[in-house]
Every structure is written in C-alpha cells, then in structure tokens.
Amino acid sequence: MSNPHRNWHAFFLPVAALCAPSAYATDYLTVAQAQAQMFPGARFAEATLKLTGEQKDRIKAASGMRQRWDEQKVWRADKDGKLQGWLLVDEVIGKHEFITYATAISPEGRVTGVEILSYRETHGGQIRDAAWRKQLVGKTVADPFKLDQDVQNISGATLSCRNVTDGVHRLLAIHQLYLKG
Amino acid sequence: MEEVRRMRPLLGTYVEVFARAADAAPAVDAAFAALALAQQRWSTQDPASELSRLNRDRQIAAGRDTLRLLRLARRMMTASSGAFDCTLGSGSVQDIVIGSDRVRLERHAQLSLDGIAKGYAVDLAISALRRAGAASGWVNAGGDLRVFGDARLPVVRRELDGSMRPLGVINNAALASSRVNDEADDFPALIVGAPHKGVHSVMARFAWRADALTKVAANTARADRANAVARLGGMLMEMQ
C-alpha cells in the first residue's frame, strides 16, 4: 500500500523524561473571553441563579440530570437594548476529568455554542513500568521538551464528552424553567 | 501571527484545535465546522446521518468526502485481509458498491465507520485549517490527532491501569490509539476472534490511516503486529 521503509523518526521525537506529569491542565478561555466570543459586541449582566431543593428537583425532572450545584452562573447578554441570549458557565466532574465550560443559549432556547473554558485531567501518578523508568534515568533530553508544559493526553480509550453534553441538556432545562421570558 | 487554542465537545469526545495563523480564530472555527459536518454525515449514533440512512435505505446519493471515505475503508478492509473491517456482522467488501455520486449496500451488509471516520474527520479539519491560512497547528479528537507545520505536540497516553505514559513529541504526522480492555465493546467492528488486550498506538501520515491501523494492530497477534501495520503504511509504537 505504501513504503514500509519510511523513516518515522523524522516525525517522532522519543521523549527522555525523568517523570510523568501527575495532572494535565489547559485553560482555553476566561469567562470574559467566552462572553466576547460567543456574543460579540454584547453587554453582560450577571444573573446567577440560587436554586432551592425544589427547583433542583424540577431541573432533574425536566432534564433527567441531577443538578449538583446550588448556584448556577448565568449572564444575560444584551445588545442595543435587545436580548441576545444567555451565557451559562457550568462544571462537570468525571472519573479522571474536571471541566469548566460555557454554553451560549439563544432567547428561544437553542444552543448556539459550547466552549471548554478549562480542562483538567488527573491520574494516579507514577510511570508504571519500573524497567522503562530505569532506561530514562541519566539520559539527557535532546529536544528541549519539558513535561511540565502542556502535555496532551491521548487516552487509549476515547474519553467521552458525555458529561458535558449531558450538562448542556441540563442547562437547556434551566433556561426553559428559569430564564426564558 | 496569532495563536488560538480551543476545545469543544464533538465526535463523542473532547476535540482540541490549535492554529497559528495571521487570523487564527476563523481558522479554528473552520476546523470545528468541518468536524461537525463529519459528525453529521458519518455518526453511527445519529439516525439522520448519511451513514444511518445508507444502512437503512440501502442506497444514498453521496458527496465527494463520503465517497472517498468509503473507498478508503473498503480498500483498507481488503488490504488488511479483514483485520480492519467496516462491516457489522457478515458483510464483505463486495457488498459496498461505490458509484460516482452514490453508494449502494448489497445483501444484508451494514456499515460502521467508527474505526476510520474520526481520523478522516481530523484530516478534513486539518485541511480546513490550511485553507484558512494556518501555517501550523493540530487537531486532537480525544486521542486521534494530527499535527502540521512546525507545531510540535507532546503526547501522553493513558494505559490500561490508568497511569499516564509519555509517548514523545509529534511533528507533521498523525497518531491514533485504541484500547482493548477485557470487554469487546471498545470495538464495534470486529472480525472473527477477540481483539488483543492492550493499548495500541499507530503513527501515519494521515489520521484516517492511523485510526484504521489501530484496529489492525488490535486484531493482529503481537508477533505479527508491527509488520502488519508497517505493510499498511503506518508505524506501530511499541513500548517496552
């Protein structure tokens, strides 16, 4: 099918490292940046919801998802005196991941954007294989690669975004119940 | 030059796009639009997708990208002697009839493109970045990733025991990984026999090929695995 003798090492730099990071974290957007991107030119007013137990029950009944937080961060976006929509910021906690994300909802209740604000993934620590770890000790790093910089996770099993998509459904229910005019 | 890095939920996972361009934000948006279109067309979960309609209606009119994807899948199935298999159940490549503007399925063949579509979507997103003027960047769809230009992406892989293993730094190549636990439900498209337990990572020039070859790796015995992947244009990343 193609050349089996291709030199792959031009495309791949083996890493010589003394340790693996215990956590992976990236911040993509602040709330202010997400606001500006998702509702360009709009003015924002904080409209945080403080939810009672009964309200949380209604959210669960409407969306099928448990409302974990007592407070839900909401901003109302207006432009030239006209409602543009709502920006909701939410957090989800998965088995290995902790994610803060923003959802933009139109006045009619359509999702117009979802952006991850920050992504954190953790794990139980050390390089697993003692023999492999021994190979690395004493080696110099030929390429200036620091493991405490951003390191991409490539989980062997695809990490599902179910937590956020479920969260978005829950936020839509919140909009329907408590934000829609 | 500006740099923009964003992550959105898509293709059932979290997808990160990075672009370095004179005007990077529209390039990133174009990449995500390409990924969203791919999901709309080839998702097995969505009953309205082109793929679902093909499985149901047995024939569809299809655009260039769908035709190309199906040709790549069919060719890989043949070339790998079925170690990569885009049919569910007892289908064969002969059941997938690809015309100049349509596709037909014969007999009872049902298709799943789960083993190749995500990689192909990554390739389409990279093309979108380039067309939008990005000089360098990457697209990482939950581990199916490709890097272009002078961008260098350090990669780490989650092993079966949950630990993280640094794999290295990728430049101008694609990388995909598949994990096989004890459960066979990681792989919707299987040939006879169970895939081999482990985490299998493959490098290739294009993400569609890296993606497809992780299935070949998982379905090939360890002694033959690296050769099988190399014969099909990829490199198995073997870790001791």
What are the segments of chain A in which pLDDT stays under 50 over at least 5 consecutive residues?
16-21, 124-156
Name the chain pair with the biggest interface and residue counts per chain.
A-B, 55 and 59 residues
Bulk shape of chain A: globular
Radius of gyration of chain B: 17 Å
Quickly give the structural class of chain B. Answer: alpha+beta
Compressed to H and E, one letter per element, the order of chain B equals EEHHEHEEEEHEEEEEEHHE
* Terminal residue distance of chain A: 60 Å
Approximate strand percentage of chain B: 25-35%
Q: Level of helix content of chain B?
A: 25-40%
Strand order of the largest sheet of chain B: 1-2-8-9-12-13-14
Question: Mind explaining what this structure looks like?
Answer:
- The complex is a heterodimer of chains A (181) and B (240).
- In chain A, 24% of the residues lie in helices and 31% in strands.
- With 181 residues, chain A is an alpha+beta fold.
- The termini of chain A are far apart.
- By secondary structure, chain B is of the alpha+beta class.
- Chain B is built from 6 helices and 14 strands.
- Chain B has helices at residues 24-42, 50-57, 64-79, 117-131, 207-218, 222-231, and strands at 2-10, 13-21, 59-61, 87-88, 96-98, 102-105, 110-111, 136-141, 144-148, 153-158, 164-170, 173-180, 198-204, 235-236.
- In chain B, the strands form 4 sheets. Chain B has a 7-stranded antiparallel sheet with strand order 1-2-8-9-12-13-14. In chain B, strands 3-6-5 form a 3-stranded antiparallel sheet, covered by helices on one side. Chain B has a two-stranded antiparallel ribbon with strand order 4-7.
- In chain B, strand 10 (153-158) and strand 11 (164-170) form a beta hairpin.
- Chain B is globular and about 55 Å long.
- Residues 184-192 of chain B have low confidence and may be disordered.
- The chains are: A alpha+beta (181), B alpha+beta (240).
- At the A-B interface, strand 1, strand 8, strand 9 and helix 4 of A face strand 1, strand 2, strand 10, strand 11 and strand 12 of B.
